[in-house]
Design a protein that fits this description.
Length: about 450
């Protein structure tokens, strides 16, 4: 019984002690928690204040570490920056208490740095001052040399004046004699000039009259030549027609289809620029040469299964648009083409005259005219000089411009150039009139390029 009582007392004491300790621990916890909150609040306040001065990410930068190393006597970085800032303002404007904006305004109002530093500007001023001193010393030396030269020149001029005075005195008498001789010579020159002008005017009038007569005679002969050539051409045609023999169907075949472009509805034919093909020429398409026969009733050639129109020309081939095609019988590679009027053996004759600007540079030159003639001959044509009955085309360039008549005192080269241009203008008009009267086609450079299948640049 006594043992149970002592045990109960011990348990009561233990529980009491535990409760007291728990209460003490709770009180300490509340105290510590309150102090922690205060410390945390103070820490956040200090961190915000430090952030206003420097960011945590900036503390390890090289420039910040350099500034930290430049401090003196363990002063703070802010104190070092304030001291450095005041020292720089004092050096720049002489007042350490002025603000940075105020210092900048004072400097900008006095000098124009244009992006340079004050030290660079000071060094520039120093260099300019040294250069000015050197130029001053050089100028002083040059001035001394010039003064010495001036004094020496004065002495030389005095000697020349004395010599010149003596020479003038001797020459005065001779000048009077020369004036008399010059007046006599001038009179003789005036008489010779008048006589020479009269002879030039007479020769010019005679030459122009003779030139007009020759030009009129050339025009008459050209007209007679055209009439005769036309008569000869008609006679040749009548004689040729008397000996025309029928051609078999194989002789009428001009070429064949070598390719088809169904997307563009075009065919590639075996004829090209070397065959004297021209844009717009049409051909009938046949499956076999045996289809090229005349209808016994009408005498006309039978209609082909399609009709082609040439739209693009290369050297050995050409592109032709299919403008008509028989349904169910399409154009295929291997088909033959024919045009009874097309004759690749015919040699077309051209006259090329005038100024041509084939390279589009704004200047017409003789070389471009020669290049145009060479292009015609390369195509297979023939370039002639005069209009005949068998001429096919007259290619005219820009009309020559005739300048005003040269004056009486114009140099001989100017007069000859004017005569040459006058002849060229007359020839241009003469060719145009003759071609019009003979119904010969007159074309320009662009139409010629289309005819021979060349696209000008």
């Amino acid at each position: 019984m006594a043992s149970r009582t002592s045990t109960g007392i011990a348990m009561g004491v233990t529980v009491t002690i535990f409760i007291v300790l728990t209460l003490a621990l709770f009180v300490l916890t509340l105290v510590f928690f309150g102090q922690k909150n205060k410390i945390t609040q103070d820490y956040n306040t200090l961190r915000d204040q430090q952030r206003d001065i420097i960011e945590a990410s900036e503390r390890n930068e090289d420039r910040v570490q350099t500034l930290m190393g430049e401090r003196q006597n363990n002063e703070s970085l802010v104190a070092y920056l304030i001291r450095s800032n005041r020292e720089l303002k004092r050096l720049a404007v002489g007042n350490a208490d002025v603000t940075v904006d105020g210092a900048r305004e004072r400097v900008a109002g006095s000098i124009d740095l244009s992006g340079a530093s004050l030290l660079g500007y000071a060094e520039q001023l120093q260099a300019e001052r040294d250069q000015a001193f050197r130029e001053r010393d050089t100028a002083r030396s040059a001035l001394r040399d010039a003064q010495e030269d001036y004094e020496a020149e004065i002495d030389r001029v005095r000697e020349i004046e004395a010599s010149l005075q003596s020479t003038v005195s001797r020459a005065t008498g001779r000048v009077d004699d020369y004036e008399t001789d010059v007046a006599s010579f001038r009179q003789g020159v005036d008489r010779y000039e008048q006589r020479l002008r009269a002879e030039v005017d007479e020769d010019r009038s005679e030459y122009e009259q003779r030139l007009d007569e020759l030009e009129d005679r050339i025009g008459e002969l050209t007209q007679e030549n055209l009439v005769l050539n036309d008569t000869v051409r008609k006679l040749r045609g009548e004689v040729g027609s008397a000996f025309v023999s029928p051609r078999d169907e194989f002789a009428l075949v001009d070429g064949e289809i070598v390719g088809i472009d169904p997307v563009e509805n075009e065919a590639i034919i075996s004829l090209g620029r070397q065959d004297k093909l021209s844009i717009g020429l049409t051909f009938s398409v046949y499956s076999d040469p045996s289809e090229l026969r005349r209808d016994p009733e009408t005498g006309e050639f039978r209609e082909g299964k399609a009709v082609l129109e040439v739209v693009g020309i290369d050297n050995t081939s050409a592109r032709a648009r299919i403008i008509r095609e028989r349904r169910g019988n399409p154009v295929v590679p291997g088909d033959i083409i024919a045009n009874p009027l097309y004759d690749p053996a015919k040699v077309y004759k051209f006259i090329v005259f005038g100024s041509f600007d084939t390279d589009r540079d704004g200047r017409a030159t003789a070389a471009e005219e020669r290049r145009l003639k060479a292009l015609i001959e390369e195509w297979g044509g023939e370039v002639v000089d005069d209009i005949t009955g068998d001429l096919d085309f007259l290619v005219l360039g820009e009309r020559p411009i005739l300048p005003p008549d040269p004056g009486l005192n114009a140099p001989r080269a100017v007069v000859e150039e004017h005569v040459r241009l006058r002849r060229k203008v007359f020839r241009y008009n003469e060719l145009f009139d003759q071609a019009q009267s003979a119904s010969i086609p007159v074309i320009n450079f662009n139409r010629l390029m289309t005819l021979i299948g060349v696209v000008p640049n």
